[in-house]
Amino acid sequence: MGLSIAGLILFLAGCGSNANTKAGGQGESEGAIVIQDFAGREVSLEKAPEKIVALGNGDVDIIYALKGEVVGRPTSAPSVRESENAEQVGSTHEINLEKIAVLQPDIILANSAMNLKDVPALESLGAKVALTEANSIADIKKQIVLYGEMLQKGEMADQVIKELESKLEKFKSSDAIQPRVLLVYGAPGTYMAALPNSLSGDILTQAGGRNIAEDYPALDKFPQYAQINTERVVEANPDYVLLMTHGNEEEVKKGFINEMKQNAAWNSINAVKDGNIEVLPADLFGTNPGTKVADAVMYLGEKLHLE
Asked: Which is higher by pLDDT, 79 or 97?
């Protein structure tokens, strides 16, 4: 089955990026807070920002975990209940500059790959811009450190990371058998396999599953994802096919099953025979869950090992 990859680029951009970046440290210059974002840019602030706009749900989650708040958030279901009254300002791939301008933020938190080109326009609003990404749990920890520096809450950031690591430590699968899993990012008519170097792939590894797409050739623009190859899927015989989406969950699942029906070979895999084709919770897997990544690991681990 040749599954289309057209139209999914915008969806994926909100979940991660292909930039090879690192978060730098904090410096002090004439009383200013100086941080280095994931794109290697130095961002200087006169003081800890009070008016923050975040274009990603993971950023919102981390800011509130550090006892901060945002005045602007993504146009989607709020990832943190306390942020529901913040202005909805679009997303990493569709920014509402007019709404952001009205908010007059001190800083805008954006995606390092998707929004690097938007930095001049965002800075023209009088705000600073910090770029990050989340292709792994390690990246989320770096985001916590960076935002802790930005908010002058380094000790609190350390505590948040310790609590995250403690939760992850509590879930360690003792099952020697690694269930075989095909992770699929999708929208109706468009489906791609998530690779181990994606955030969801890292979550799967932490949860004790085996990603059957581990050696699939990566896409050029998004090396965390690959086109689905039916023959290889049938050969790997996954125990689970797990779908992730920003959109209508039932519509995505129905569309994927309809695609599968076009090739009878899918009926031979364990996931189909056992009815293990499911859509994962969008708040944990359809986007960067921030500090809730531990919940994502536990959710997936319990599904794979306790069912």
From this structure: 97
Distance separating alpha carbons of residues 37 and 26, to the nearest angstrom: 10
Least Cα distance to 220 among 14, 69, 59, 18 occurs for 18
pLDDT band at 29 (very low <50, low <70, confident <90, very high): very low
Residue with tokens 């290697």: 40
Q: Which two tokens stand for residue 183?
A: 């992770």
- By DSSP bridging, strand 26-29 and strand 32-36 are antiparallel
CA distance 288 to 46: 29
Q: Average pLDDT for residues 63-91, to the nearest whole number?
A: 94
Nearest to 68 by CA among 98, 106, 37: 106
Against a cut of 0.85, is the pTM above it?
yes
Mind giving me the DSSP string for 187-240? ETTEEEEEPTTSHHHHHHHHTT-EETTTTSPPPSS-TTEEE-BHHHHHHH--SE
Cα 89 from Cα 210, distance rounded (Å): 38
Two tokens, residue 127: 């705000």
pLDDT at 150 over 70: yes
SS3 294: helix
Distance CA(79)–CA(248), nearest Å, equals 17
CB-count burial class (<10 Å; 0-12, 13-18, 19+) for 71: buried
Contact present, 143 and 56 (Cβ < 8 Å): no
